[in-house]
What does this fold into?
Amino acid sequence: MAELDILLKRFVGDFRKISGVEGCVITSSDGAILASDVAGGVNEEELGAITIFSAGIGVQLDTELKLGRLEKIVVEGSDYKIISINSGPVYVGLSTASNVSVDLISKEAMDLASKLSEVVK
It folds into this structure.
């Protein structure tokens, strides 16, 4: 378990290195925060809650609509954006400022999420 904790913390660090990312949480499917690194006005618990809630809706959409696997959900507010990614048995939540382009960070974030899903099978 300690090895997994270290790996998750490394992944959080890698997500945080993406230009524009201000905070990152990795949660279990039941909403427990497994690893995080947030800065500024980002609240770890709120980021985790929004991540699991929005990703859960994404899973429901996948199941109900059968349109293909949903990659990410973006929640936008006046001062922030939160990207929720279903990464296998865990979820990743990334917070950014409102002026950050989700498209610019999505490729790198999705690549990392794919690697994460291989580690936490």
The CA atoms of residues 36 and 71 lie 21 Å apart.
